[in-house]
Amino acid sequence: MATENVLHLDARLRAAARLVRPGHKAADIGCDHGKLSAALVCGGRCPSVIAADLRPGPLSVARANIQAAGCADRVELRLGDGLKVLRPGEAQDIIIAGMGAETICEILEKAPWVRDPALRLVLVPATKHSILRRWLCREGFALRQESLAQVSGRWYAVMAAEYTGQAFEPTGDFCLMGLTKGQAGWQEYLAQQLVKLKKFCRGVQDDPTLKGPVEELIARLEAELEEKGERET
N or C: which end of the chain has fewer CB within 10 A? Predict the structure, then answer.
C-alpha cells in the first residue's frame, strides 16, 4: 500500500484537516479508514492523534493505513462509542466526520465536558446540516469557520465550532447556509439545501405555524439565487 494513497484525502477531509488548529493534539471520532488521522500527523499539523471507531472492522483498516503511512507511534487507536473513548483534556481539537447531524448532536450531548471554550469541534455532517447548525447555536457553540467541499457531485459543509455559552435561536437563513455564503460553490450548495427544505415543507402542510414561514424562506432564497444568476449572465 503506497504511502501517497494512504495520505490522499478527498475534498471533504482536506477541508476538515485545515480547520484543525496547528500544534494541537486531536481526536478523530469515527475515524473509519484512518486516513485523516494519518495525514494530520504525517503532515505535521498535529503532534499526535487519538483515532477511534465504534466497529472493529474499520479500526483494523485504520491500523493498516496508519502503519503503512509510518506514523503508528503518533496515532493511538481506540475502540469505543463516540466520545466515551476520551477523557476530558486528552485532545484539544475533536473531529467528527461522516455521520448524520442527529448522530453528531447525540454524541456531543452525551459528553457535557465538550462545553469548554478551549476545545475546537471540527464537524462534517453527512446529512441534515441545518439541524446541526441549529443545535450548535441553541447549545451555546459559535461557528468560527465553515468551508464547502464537493465530493462525487455532492456538497458538504465542514464546520469549526467553539463553546461560548452564548446560546441563541438562529434564523432560517443561518441554519441553511451558516458561514458559507459567498464561498466558491455556495449557490450550488444553497440549491442542494433548498431541495431538502422543500421536502420538509411538504411534511408540514398541516401545520400553519411552520408552513407559512418555511414557504416564505423558500421563496426569498429562490429569488436571491435567481437574481444572483441573472447578474452573472
Answer: C
Task: Quote the Cα angle for 16-165-48, to 5°.
Answer: 35
Q: What number is the average pLDDT over the span 128-149? A: 97
Spell out the residues 6+ positions from residue 6 whose beta carbon is closer than 8 angstroms to its own: 35, 38, 65, 66, 68, 69
Is the overall model pTM greater than 0.85, yes or no? Answer: yes
Question: Which stretch of 10-19, 50-59, 202-211 has the lowest confidence by average pLDDT?
Answer: 202-211
Question: In whole angstroms, what is the distance from residue 62 CA to residue 113 CA?
Answer: 27
Q: What is the pLDDT of residue 220?
A: 86
pLDDT at 68: 94
How is domain 3-168 classified at the architecture level of CATH? 3-Layer(aba) Sandwich (3.40)
Give the Cα separation of 75 and 98 in Å (integer). Answer: 20
- Note the Cα 82 to chain centre separation in Å: 15
Q: Which residues contact 113 (CB under 8 A, 6 or more apart)?
A: 88
CB 69 within 8 A of CB 33: no
User: Where is 212: in which H helix or E strand?
Assistant: helix 208-232
Cβ neighbours, 10 Å, residue 177: 23
Name the packing angle between helices 129-138 and 101-109 (round to 10°). 30
**What's the CA gap between 69 and 181, in Å, rounded?**
36
User: Rounded CA gap, 145 and 83, in Å?
Assistant: 22
